[in-house]
Amino acid sequence: DRAANILKTGDYNPHFMEWPSFPIYLTAGSMAVGYLHAASKLEVEGTADIGSVSFPYFTHSKILWAPKVLFVLLGITAAFLMGVVGYRLTNNPYLLFLAPFVILLSPFYSGQLLAYPNVDTVGVFSVACLYLFLFSSERTEFSVRQAAIAGALTGMTIASKYSLFLVFVPTLLLIITLRSGRRVVPAVVLVVVAAMTFVLLVPFSVLDLPQFLDDLAYQANHYHGGHPGLEAPPGMQQLRHYLAGLRGDFGLVTLPFF
Length: 258
Fold this sequence. Notes:
single chain; mainly alpha; two-stranded antiparallel ribbon; 12 helices; globular
């Protein structure tokens, strides 16, 4: 609905920042394509006719075909990019096909792709792009220019989902281990470019700071407290819960983990 409201009102402030606005803008842009397609079929005459776009209640399915196609392509591309990452890390060509096959075999992953556009798909794609850049070649050094590119990809990842901020870690580790001499400059470049990219993709984190901070605080409390019904204390009980989910997704393939 936030993406649809942008088309209906022309207000680019989603007035909702519990999730970053980058996926919302992607959805709105692709939804505009679907809207024009629906208009060409005489199904809508104005933006007021867009109706509901909330899953699973879609007033006009043609309006959502473009966002669905876009997010499915992002998810499939991310799976194949991780295959390339696996190949670069192990030099095993089988991973070029095995990794995406295993990922797309997941009912949860594929179900999310097919059901509706969601922030997790954009986050997975962004992480895959970052890892592909970091491990695309055998690095012997990490230049300032490379730190800037990694910073842009890191900012895009966090602008997809706040909880992915830990993607800073592998890049910083590469800078520390590969950079000879002064490591401070590339590290600072990484952080600054990531912050600039985040603000560019989530502009109302600055332009509507109170809303951003309120929603960020809500998410922090939500992550601490957990989803209703899933508030079990940390420990083996939580680990067993996640392993059971993994087994439900992949079946016998996961037996070595038990």
